[in-house]
Amino acid sequence: MTAPGAAPTADRDADEQANEQADEQAREEARLRLRRGRLVTAVVAGALALVVGVVALLGGFRERTDRLVAVPTGSTIATGPYEVTVARATVQHRTSSAQWEVVASGTVRTTGTTSIDPPVGDAGFLYARGEGGEVQASTRITLGDSTASQTQDTLTPGLPPVPWAVTFRFTADPGNRVFVAVFDQEYTTPYLFSDEKSWRSTSDASTMTVALEPLPDADY
């Protein structure tokens, strides 16, 4: 025979267990939010530090000639898992966006063991400075023949160099030439709260001054 009050006690035990589980879940979610917040902060801080460092190196604040090595235009430059050249460049005023589009071209190949595509923006390793001092990261990279109906998406290990075109967008007329910097890269853990390794630009770069071939203005 069941003693009076046994069922309510069991119900209370079940309620307490459910509350403890809910509390633990809430604490775990709070810990995850904290870790995500720290990771985002580290990523943003790292990106800002890289941008500030690049601007300083390229003369936006004060040029660091001890970290920059001048090479002739068209030289083969080894950086991370790539070998690249920059041989020429064009400039075109995009009137609809009031921007000047600089496209530097040359060749690229991967020296690594896996297929890879070169990154752009703050995650990339190419920057350009106009004669007025404006510094811009690459915004687009086209692999293969840019005039062909279809271009390639990645670089394949073991193949010879292919043509590439690197685009930079300036908010002011860059002038008659650009100062191009190809930064060295190292394989490391770039974020404070992650053990995942990736290629990251260092503060050392190979640089060259490339004359700009002007193209007619275009809307887009």
UniProtKB/TrEMBL annotation:
The chain crosses the membrane at residues 39-61. Residues 1-28 are annotated as: Disordered. The keyword Transmembrane applies. The keyword Membrane applies. Residues 13-23 have a biased composition (Acidic residues). It comes from the Bacteria. Keywords: Membrane, Transmembrane, Transmembrane helix. This is Uncharacterized protein.
